[in-house]
Amino acid sequence: xxxxxxxxxxxxxxxxxxxxxxxxxxxxxxxxxxxxxxxxxxxxxxxxxxxxxxxxxxxxxxxxxxxxxxxxxxxxxxxxxxxxxxxxxxxxxxxxxxxxxxxxxxxxxxxxxxxxxxxxxxxxxxxxxxxxxxxxxxxxxxxxxxxxxxxxxxxxxxxxxxxxxxxxxxxxxxxxxxxxxxxxxxxxxxxxxxxxxxxxxxxxxxxxxxxxxxxxxxxxxxxxxxxxxxxxxxxxxxxxxxxxxxxxxxxxxxxxxxxxxxxxxxxxx
Amino acid sequence: xxxxxxxxxxxxxxxxxxxxxxxxxxxxxxxxxxxxxxxxxxxxxxxxxxxxxxxxxxxxxxxxxxxxxxxxxxxxxxxxxxxxxxxxxxxxxxxxxxxxxxxxxxxxxxxxxxxxxxxxxxxxxxxxxxxxxxxxxxxxxxxxxxxxxxxxxxxxxxxxxxxxxxxxxxxxxxxxxxxxxxxxxxxxxxxxxxxxxxxxxxxxxxxxxxxxxxxxxxxxxxxxxxxxxxxxxxxxxxxxxxxxxxxxxxxxxxx
Lengths: 269, 255
Prior knowledge:
The structure holds two protein chains of two kinds.
Chain A: H1 2-9, H2 14-17, H3 24-46, H4 55-67, H5 70-102, H6 104-118, H7 126-133, H8 137-161, H9 165-173, H10 178-215, H11 221-230, H12 234-262
Helix pairs in contact in A: 4-12, 5-6, 5-8, 5-10, 5-11, 6-8, 7-8, 8-10, 9-10, 10-11, 10-12, 11-12
Chain B: E1 3-16, E2 19-32, E3 36-40, H1 47-55, E4 62-67, E5 70-71, E6 79-82, H2 94-103, H3 109-122, H4 138-151, E7 156-160, H5 168-185, E8 188-193, H6 196-202, E9 205-210, E10 215-221, H7 236-250
Parallel strand pairs in B: 3-8, 3-9, 6-7, 7-8
Antiparallel strand pairs in B: 1-2, 1-4, 4-5, 9-10
Helix pairs in contact in B: 2-3, 2-4, 3-4, 6-7
């Protein structure tokens, strides 16, 4: 239920961060924080936390992994899985969410399943998925699909339910049919919710992916880290973590950009 | 009897825990063609419900509403509705909002544009035709909503406390503007308000309603000529009628 409330509020939340770009002071502070972090990391590594590599070692390892193509291959393998699962999940979630929001019958039939599976962390499905679908690509994509599907479906559904009734009445009194109301009022009005759902879905898809790869994979960032763990290769683990973080951040920013483009009409308070 | 809008014994009841709640208790009212009628009353008197029945947004539990002698069955573009919360589509510009209703007709695109242009001009928003609602002030938003209703050329305007959320000055300006267009185009207007001054200033007849159960308390004629002017607000006659309406609204005997 907490997630529901958070979803409901979030379309307005990015508003605070919007504006003609962050002030220079904030960017300077961000950079300062990064530099300070690197210094502390270097210090910790040099005063001898057992086996901890410093930033330079990690950078060197990253260079090595980039040079022999491993990092790119792993990143692409991971991205392919996450995008496939995410796109399938979202494309299915949006129409189903609309269906649930618009038709009480569909809501009654689907809601128990959606609400039930929402409470199960997608990771908990992994053992089942592996038993049923083997250890190939299918179970990983499936789990990612499930993760993004569930957050998008709930957001879309919530978006449709929360469409301002006055807007629907305003369209009705102008002579709009149900079909027009759906296409011209409900769809645009729920877009902010859908995009927030997609962002949450992408985040949870990304998190699920790495975990899925930790268990069974032949390539991918999660798999690489799992391998490195066996050889006590902390540098590779750090490279993997940083790559996961950067890619996740990049994807989130891209969706945020799309969100601002598509929902710039929203009133900010 | 050539009533434009005719309510006959309309009632609205809602089931509640112990029995039924009566929002409207068998109300009958005729509004003549081209008449400007205001409806005032305390909250809970059912004035918005009454208007929504004419709009086709609320169905009476019993009784019926006729518009032009035809029973109301759902909303339609022959009756324009203005809501207190503006109800503009926030993702559309002023022009696109105004064109929304026109696009549902089979008018050719050129004619649609021309009509939208004229409605926008009528409410003085020409300079803001391509602005999004979020950039407009409350008064401008409501003018845009009025233009959207005018554009489809309804014969009846149903207005639900349209100026209730505006500051006093904007409110007076919009009242004058509304009367101005009304005197030119002579639509039938049913205007809901809780502001006694506004009710008297605009209307030919003020319908005073009472609550619990919602019903018509008194109907007060406003014998002031149109066009109404700001000086008229200060006249003794205006004051007398306002006092009468005020008394009817705020000194109701408990039901």
